[in-house]
Write a structure and sequence with these properties.
about 0% strand, 10 helices, Arc Repressor Mutant, subunit A, 2 domains, about 210 residues, mainly alpha, single chain
Length: about 210
Amino acid sequence: MEIRDRDIAAQDQLLSQLKKDWDKLHDLDRAARVAQIKRTGLSNRDIARKLQRGETLIRRLLVILRASAADRAAARSGKISTNELFRRTKAARKQHANDEQQRQAAEAAKFICDWLKALNMAKPSTEQIATEARRIMIDAYFAGTLPKVVLPNHPLPPRAVIIECCKPKEPLTDEIDPSGWFSTWLARWLPFVFPHPDVRDKAIDIVIDKHCSG
């Protein structure tokens, strides 16, 4: 209880000092103070309420802290406004997220292609398998029938183990179309190995467009 009381006292002191200094601080300095308060455990909403400021403003201040050093310097010198700093920071973060997602999709596509190549099937068949697997996943998603697979009791089982666990129960025989069987298998393991839907979709696009060449 004593520690909790000290935490609350520290929060109150930081909030009181920021309210007192607010009008003479640059937005970046306000942002740094808000971040310091947030690290004490207060939510954006609580900070906004205690400072008697809008929650949107608090969120924007926390965003501009992630601006590049060059943009922060430009804002401090008055070359760009805080609104422009916020816009640039948000755009840069979005671009970074897109670049990272594309990188992950490329890695996922290579993994899928390596798996397809190991099946020793012709390229038109590998493209067919990937296209059909996508259709199966889309249909399963909208029908609410995503595969139920029992995975090993391990926080991070190896991909090969996950894929083996996702193999269709019906064995592949001469009477079964291999393309359809492998499509089903691919559609079953993809959501578990690559759970992010956007990464998974982009990876399938790459696989289909490039026909697992190279």
